[in-house]
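Lecture 7 notes: from sequence to structure.

We start with a single chain of 78 residues. Read the sequence below before looking at the structure.
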Amino acid sequence: MMIALHKRARTTPAVRAEIAASRESVAALARRYNVTEATIRKWRARDDFHDRPHTAHRLQTRLNRVLKIAGMPSAPCL
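Now the structure, written as tokens:
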């Protein structure tokens, strides 16, 4: 099975599960895995260790509708 990680992920789901199960201090784990203490706290608080999508839940389409009504071309999506 192939794991889909985002480009800057420093941890894998297996490492995240180890972080959540570990009894070591937050500071020690952060040093070991070369991540911030906030990252350690985040993975300890989660039940699921896979990346969450970063796609917007609501797409910004209001401006394009206004431009269409005004007869202007919409801005290109980047």
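Residues 13 and 49 are 5 Å apart (CA to CA). Keep this in mind for problem set 3.
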